[in-house]
Amino acid sequence: MLAQFRITFAAACLALGGFTALLQPIAAAAQSTDPLSRENILYDPAAPAIGNPKADLSIVEWFDYQCPYCKKMNPDLLKVVQEDGHVRLVFKDWPVFGDVSVHAAQLVLAAKYQGKYAEAHDALMAIRGKLSEDLLGPTLTQAGIDVERAKRDLDTHRKEITALLARNHEQALALGFQGTPAFIIGHFRVPGALDAATLKLAIKEARAALKAEKKTKKPAK
What we know:
By secondary structure, this protein is an alpha+beta fold. It has a single domain (2-216), classed as Glutaredoxin. The protein contains 8 helices and 8 strands. The chain has helices at residues 38-43, 68-84, 99-111, 117-125, 133-142, 147-156, 158-174, 196-217, and strands spanning 13-16, 19-22, 24-25, 49-51, 57-63, 87-93, 182-185, 188-191. It has a 6-stranded mixed sheet. A two-stranded antiparallel ribbon has the order 1-2. A hairpin with a 2-residue loop joins strand 7 (182-185) and strand 8. Helix 3 (99-111) packs antiparallel against helix 4 (117-125) and helix 3 (99-111) packs across helix 7 (158-174). The longest helix is centred in the last third of the chain and has 22 residues, at 196-217. The N and C termini lie far apart (38 Å).
């Protein structure tokens, strides 16, 4: 799968916030219908997104509602996106912690059919401690989600939701991610959690790389 990406190691190692993170550019696949293409990783129409729809930069996050690092980073991630104002944040549910994670992802994705994905996402991310089936319903209800409708929507749209989760999983593995959280920032992949300062620096570096890429593609006069 990784052969479908031109992994460019010329990006080398970039020092970020006191540690070294490998940021590796991904290139567009030949066909936009390929789930592993740049277009479908960054702009899958089924993947929920918040932020500026006309953003100059996309951040894609693979996460699990039972991942403590995802939960810890979530407030900083949302704050940075809001304060920046020019970032589009794409959510890729990647339930890797078992059946409860899968059911949580399914219910939250079903909540988007009542326009409540963001509320459902934030509610489950805010749970401290172990997530359980018994917690899902009451937590979502308290966040204003009609849980019974979400269950009906899950039954109605199960095929689409299952396909989206399968694409998210396939993309994460193809990009070499080994766990959550994991990110695409611009056209670079960044495994692991980041603090707010490091995330801002990663956004800055990603914008610079995109700008340089555009210059190299600009036709000579």
